[in-house]
Amino acid sequence: MKPSPFTYHAPESIAEATALLAELGDDAKALAGGQSLVPMLSLRLAAFEHLVDLNRVAGLNAIERVNGHLRLGATVRQATAEHSAEVKSSVPLLARALPHIGHFQIRNRGTVGGSIAHADPASELPAVALALDAVIEAAGPGGTRRIAASDFFVSTWETALNDGEILSAVEFPVWSGRCGFAVEELTRRHGDFAIVGTAVGVQVDGDAVTKATIALFGVGATPLRASEAEAALMAGADVAEVARAATAGLTPSDDVHASGAYRTQVAAVMVRRALTKAIQEARA
Ligand SMILES: Cc1cc2nc3c(=O)[nH]c(=O)nc-3n(C[C@H](O)[C@H](O)[C@H](O)COP(=O)(O)OP(=O)(O)OC[C@H]3O[C@@H](n4cnc5c(N)ncnc54)[C@H](O)[C@@H]3O)c2cc1C
């Protein structure tokens, strides 16, 4: 099928893009890599009278170090981030998550900002943003504001962005010291969305885990942090115990791919595997 007719806009500045989105309201949608939006339009699962293409907006495609963070502009392609030496060394968890997204053709067009703004609960990058306490920069007609990742994901495909706002950048904190990171997920076939997955990070000092983060995806309407399990890991619990704690309160729903009970059980296996790898890496 083909999308319903729409008017295409190609603004060249953030001010122009956000003014258009504010003025056109619910009839308009931002277009980034098009890897989620275009299939939805083509299948007529969504229809908009106006598409506001962000790809020509100046200043949205840089990767730079800013105040202990790595800042990625909204339209940085997933493939660009995946192959960036700076991303690999500064935010290894992001580098490890990216190859799990679809296929390379998808990542060649799909953007980091688009994935986070789209907020699919089975997506890897929202979970990485949550795990690392990333900061999301939103730009609107009135200027910019900063939103903690923990406040950004509201529900399935729903974020804290207001009408007329775009996600202009994401800032990922750079961890230092002896660290390890891992992403584990279960998919039916390579390139499919995850049935369930986890993104974890640890920092160690000798045998002690001094910092830990565990985020889960595919188990609820948004990515979820397992804060109690993180505390248990830092208090010396073993990874099997931590994995059980991370998944104890989950209530994922049943769907055609898996029952909620299966998702919970597999999530615990993913957390155990990911933490084992991350701790080994940090201690190596
Ligand atoms: C076959 C296939 C397999 C895939 N597999 C995976 C997978 O395994 N994991 C995964 O995470 N994703 C997967 N994807 C989705 C892919 O990662 C998309 O690229 C991503 O979800 C959206 O990014 P985009 O740049 O393409 O955004 P678009 O498709 O252009 O936009 C998606 C939505 O986000 C909004 N949006 C985009 N950018 C902004 C912005 N800067 N500010 C405000 N709103 C914005 C748009 O308005 C739209 O509502 C897959 C896609 C396909 C087609």
What would your notes on this structure say?
Helices cover 35% and strands 27% of the residues. It is an alpha+beta fold and 284 residues long. It has three domains: 7-52, Uridine Diphospho-n-acetylenolpyruvylglucosamine Reductase, domain 2 (2-Layer Sandwich); 63-173, Uridine Diphospho-n-acetylenolpyruvylglucosamine Reductase, domain 3 (2-Layer Sandwich); 178-283, CO dehydrogenase flavoprotein, C-terminal domain (Enolase-like, domain 1), CATH 3.30.390. Helix 10 (227-234) packs antiparallel against helix 11 (239-247). The longest helix has 24 residues, at 260-283. The radius of gyration is 19 Å and the shape is globular. The structure holds flavin-adenine dinucleotide (FAD).
Topology:
Elements: E1 7-9, H1 14-24, E2 28-31, H2 37-42, E3 50-53, E4 63-66, E5 69-73, H3 78-82, H4 85-90, H5 92-97, H6 104-109, H7 112-118, H8 124-131, E6 135-140, E7 143-148, H9 149-152, E8 153-155, E9 158-159, E10 166-173, E11 178-186, E12 196-205, E13 208-217, E14 224-225, H10 227-234, H11 239-247, H12 260-283
Parallel strand pairs: 1-3, 2-3
Antiparallel strand pairs: 4-5, 5-10, 6-7, 6-10, 8-9, 11-12, 12-13, 13-14
Flavin-adenine dinucleotide (FAD) binds at residues 29-37, 39, 54, 74, 101-102, 106, 110-111, 113-115, 117-118, 120, 123-125, 161, 166-167, 193.
